[in-house]
Amino acid sequence: MADAAWHFTHAPEPRRLDALSAVLVHFSLQIRRLLRFRVLGVWLFVSAAVVLGGFGLTRLSLSDPGVMVKWFGQFVLRAEGLTALGLATAAIRVDADAGVLGLFLLRPRAPTALPLGRWLAATVLTGALGLLLWLGTVLAVQGTVLLMPSAQLARMAWTTMLAAPAYCAIFLAFSCWFRNAAAVSLGWFTLADLLSPMGSDWLARFSPAHHLNLLVLGAYPSASGLSKMVKDLAQMPQNTVADPLTPWILPIESGWLLALTAVALVLAVVRLRREVPAGTN
Amino acid sequence: MSQPITALPANTQPATSPNGGMPVLRLQRVTRRYGARVALLDASVELRPGLVGLLGPNGAGKTTFLHLAAGLTEPSSGHISWLDDRPRRHAKLDNRIAFVPDGDDLPRRDTALDFVAMLLQSAGLSRAQALARGASTLERLGLQAKLHEPLQGLSRGQRQRVKLAQAFALPADLILLDEPLNALDPIWRLEVAALMREAVQSGACVVLSSHILEEVEALADWLVLLFRGRVVAAGTRKQIQELLSHRATAVRIQCDDPRRLGQALLGVAPVTLLRVEGQELSVQAENLAVLQRSLAQAVLSSGVRVQSVRTAGDDLVGLFQALSQEVR
Questions:
Q1: For residue A25, which residues of chain B lie inside 8 Å, CB to CB?
Q2: Where are the domains of chain B?
Q3: Cβ contacts (< 8 Å) between B166 and chain A: which residues?
Q4: Is B29 exposed, middle or buried (0-12, 13-18, 19+ CB in 10 A)?
Q5: What is the pLDDT of residues B166-222, one digit of tens each?
Q6: How far apart are CA B39 and CA B308, in angstroms?
């Protein structure tokens, strides 16, 4: 039955958490939660499928190096975005839907530290999967005519690392504000992805997909759009594809992504400081 | 609609729980709206250490009250302060408020110990301390065999005990329990009641919300009654009954000759209704105190033998029904 030695007041004194330690506590707790096969397995499977797809693509009789750039933007970054959607949404909704998010938010500095710590955990894992995808891409193109210049590959790696915080922050903010965050996030993910191709460049600035694509391509689209640039890439001599880096594209687009990340995190913190998000159950 | 019965005049002064110690929680004219819906209206209550029963039917505003009291939601208007008038998120409030939410969901994949330990770690304990204290608290609540089981595999009662374990694992000054006895069997209800008393003896204010009136009646030192988002009464049970004694009330008397007793009563009391059913006499009067005095006189003068006297509103059920009617 009950433990007779236990007493309400005989508990260890909690140490005072400063802002950084509080974030790190929430980060480590969330990482431990996410590092379970049942949670991570589906995203590992998605990543593996995308890498296999990349290998398959390089074994086709293609001579256009632009194909891999296109493939990277359309499959690798989307797979990473979906992973971010799964991990960042779960970071808030698992507890919110179970009605216990409030218990965590009662802890010292939690309204700020919890979203930041959990975002960091989701970002680290999403980024790690993104880098695995990038590594798979690099391995896939090795020894083929589709091999890209190292500067292009480096920029692709940089893009996967920037995609993780941006997507995770936006999806985490959605999960703080919306009960059906997964559906809202998926809707937004699809819509935001379509904005740029549809020509809504102004609106597309608020979508990581737009900035990530520009980073991967390394150049702003010409008047005739993205397709022309991909065609230009294809016309370059095999294996000596010049890196089409437009000056300032790296800091400007990276800046946009970091700004989107910061705004999303602020919105998440504002929401959690004001009220505990309601659950769907 | 008539004026609500309150232990405080028209919500201008907070109703204060009677025990000593500094105020643990003070609500001053607090209103909380969700869109057009008013969940809590103009509530003023001051709580000090002790066991406080928060009573009300479903939708009365109990959960909103507890969320506001925990600082998990902001009032639309009014002011809330904790532990001697400190504002929300003051450093001195760190880990001083514990909460058990309503509902029986918990994160399904966490084990019981993981879940409690996570909350303790985020309170500032090391991993080792959190695991040790989490395990001993879960054992105190009879879950020693379930420490490493995923929460989805536990019964409702066991999950409820896990939620209680996280609230009692660290000493707190304000422990807010939303329907804590739900799904618990009688043995664990007693154990949890003992745990609440232990916390109160250590100087905590335990607020117990329930719609099971009998349980609260047996446990609480002080009551806050909510109805349709309003604090309709606050005080000890006796204080609330005294408020009601000046309202129309009814007494049921089991005796050997109810007709004779009724005739005797008519001569001495301002009775508004008399009814005889078998061996029972029902009497309604404007003032309970006057009726009770007159009843003693009538029994003596009539010489009838009385088996029992029951006053409507004598228990919390009756009390609550009367209060609810007042607000309607």
A1: 121-122, 124
A2: 9-242, 245-327
A3: 103
A4: middle
A5: 999 999 999 999 999 888 998 999 999 999 999 999 999 999 998 777 778 788 888
A6: 41
Alpha-carbon gap: B214 to the closest alpha carbon of chain A (Å): 25
Question: CA-CA distance, B3 to B304, in Å (whole number)?
Answer: 40
How far does the CA of residue A111 sit from the closest CA of chain B (Å)? 10
- Predicted pLDDT at A115: 97
Res A242: pLDDT: 52
Q: Which two tokens stand for residue A244?
A: 């089409």
**Cβ–Cβ < 8 Å for A54, A136:** yes
- Between CA B277 and CA B271 the distance in angstroms is 17
Does A7 reach chain B within 8 Å, measured CB to CB? yes
Beta partners for A222?
Answer: A225
How many angstroms separate the Cα of A76 from the Cα of each of A53, A239, B245? 10, 22, 75
Flag whether the ipTM exceeds 0.95: no
Token digits of residue B134: 């989490």
Q: Is A223 on the interface with B (CB under 8 A)?
A: no
Residue B5 has a pLDDT of: 39
Q: Which of B137, B170, B199 sits opposite A6 (nearest CB)?
A: B137
Residue with tokens 């001051």: B46
User: What pLDDT is recorded for position B58?
Assistant: 81
Residue partners of B240: CB distance under 8 A and separation at least 6? B5, B7, B223, B225, B233, B234, B319, B323
Provide the b/e sequence for B214-223 (b: ≥16 CB within 10 Å): ebbbebbbbb
Interface probe for A, chosen from B74, B106, B118 (most Cβ of A below 10 Å), is B118
Chain B closest-CA separation from residue A11 CA (Å): 6
Inter-chain CB proximity B122 and A22 less than 8 Å? yes
Identify the CATH assignment for B245-327 out of 3.30.70.100, 3.40.718.10, 3.90.380.10, 3.90.1150.10. 3.30.70.100
The two three-digit tokens of residue A152, written as one number: 């292009």
**CB < 8 Å to B89, chain A:** 111
Measured between its terminal Cα atoms, the distance across chain A in Å is 32
Chain A contact present for B152, CB below 8 A = no
Q: Shortest CA distance to A167 belongs to which of A149, A193, A145, A144?
A: A193
CA–CA separation, A160 and B310 (whole Å): 76
B9-242 folds as Rossmann fold (3.40.50)
Out of B126, B139, B202, closest to residue A3 by CB: B139
Of residues B172, B114, B52, B48, the one with CA closest to residue A8: B172
> Position B197: which residue type?
R
Residue B21 near chain A (CB below 8 Å)? no
Pick A29's closest partner by Cβ from B67, B122, B132: B122
> Chain B neighbours among A 111-150 (CB < 8 Å)?
111, 114
Domain extents for chain A? 19-274
